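[User]
Um, tokens okay?
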Amino acid sequence: MDNFIELKDVKKTYVVGDKEFNALDGVSFSIPKGEFVVILGPSGAGKSTLLNLLGGMDNATSGTITVDSENIEKYSKNELAEYRAENVGFIFQFYNILPTLTVLENVDIVKDIVKRPKSSKRILEDVGLKEHMNKFPNQLSGGEQQRVSIARAIAKNPKILLCDEPTGALDSKTGVEVLKLLKKQCDANNGENTVIIVTHNALIAEIADRVIRLKNGQIDSINVNKHPKSIDEVVW
């Protein structure tokens, strides 16, 4: 299978005062299209930095990041904005939904930035929020708010779904429901969707096709699960 995402010797250096800090230090790996990938590592390992680079929200200091045969490190600011809008869905730990908009309106806003959005109402039905479309975020539970965030990301019809600790603020039962939604998205569209989850929760690695472990800004290990567990098989 051809590699959909490929990083070669990627470095991200921050300058703090008169010192330099390498958040990522020579990271290289590849991901085929359609995989469910988990990136593991402790705080400060470089996980969120890596996610920001993959999502086109930041540029590497050096190295190449290729997505669908395009080196996004060569993109202009406008090209990166289009890349984020058309290709990437983001899901964060703390939802990032707008409190003054209804559930449906929060998902509908993607219609202003993408060319081929999915039906907001259909997606909300798929994530179990059919009866909550006209409610505001403060009328929802934490798990329901995260579902809104997932619905909004899926409605963009993205090639890549980037998830930063998507279950971190949820109880285990709700977290499992969220993971099922993400796995369902990965399996949709005949394997065209790639889902990448950044987390410190090692249990999630058991359901992944590929597990990338980061430590001190470098690759510690990469493991391919030939027979990943189903979500219901994992003891949460």
Observations:
- The mean pLDDT is 92.
